[in-house]
Fold:
Amino acid sequence: MKKTFLRALSYLLTVAMITTSLNVPVYAESYSDPVKTDYETEEPSDTTELTVPDVSDDSVIVADPEEETADDAEITEDTDLSGNDEISEEPEDFDDLPALTADGDFEISSNTLVKYNGEGGEITIPEDVWEIGANVFKGNTSITKVSFSSNSKVTAIGNSAFENCTNLTQIDLPDSLLKIGDYSFKKSGLTSITIPKSVNLVGYETFMNCSSLKTVKIDSTVEMTISPNFTKGPFEGCPIESVIFNEEMKEIPSDILKDAKVESGLEIKIPSKVTRIADRAFMNTNIGSIVFEGNMLTSIGDSAFENCTNLTQIDLPDSLL
Structure:
């Protein structure tokens, strides 16, 4: 009986298993091909297409974050740098700019004295100065004497350089000097002056109204131009008592003593080698006489002795043409 029951149970289990195996494909078949819904997505492909934007010249280019940044980049001597961010170990070129140096009380730019910072008294111009700039000492009442070294290279004194230096009584101009500018010593305290041999230009009103200037020596042996605009002479208003011309001179320059307040009756000696007295040389002066030390004079310029009301005697040489 018991065996019969077990066989029946085994049979039923077998039938159940068979039935189950047969129903699975049926169930699967009913759902194996369902209607696709709107929300169902397609399987992505193996590769994704990347769209590269059109980059114009004005576009902003974003650096790849994987690339090395400028901060992390190593700069070596061989690094090729260009553009506005160029890095160079060489300093900016300032060759075209004048170098300003200080030599004690003096400021010098490209061998030109441009400023004086001293306390005055007797001063000596530095050897590396080739030119005294305009207005450098103008109005300075503390300097009393100006000297130059024996090997001075100064060739020019600028306009108004010593104008109104009322206590400047003496200056020893160097042999290297070529030009004395306009108003250079106007209204200064000079008592005497010697124009060096190489000077070829004396400017407009250079010594005008130097109220103490009594002795003038013209030592120049080159052709000299005086007051190019010839409206006023370089010594106008100066109370000159003595005038000495270099014995090697060949021409008395134009306007040299024009309008000078020379001592009444002053005698002027003309060196023996002089061949010409230029225009207006003694115009409007109180000279009393002219003495020719030689016989080489060939010409006298226009208005050379005009309005010399005290000139009472002049013996012209036979050489005059």
Remarks:
- The longest strand covers residues 143-148.
- The chain has one helix and 20 strands.
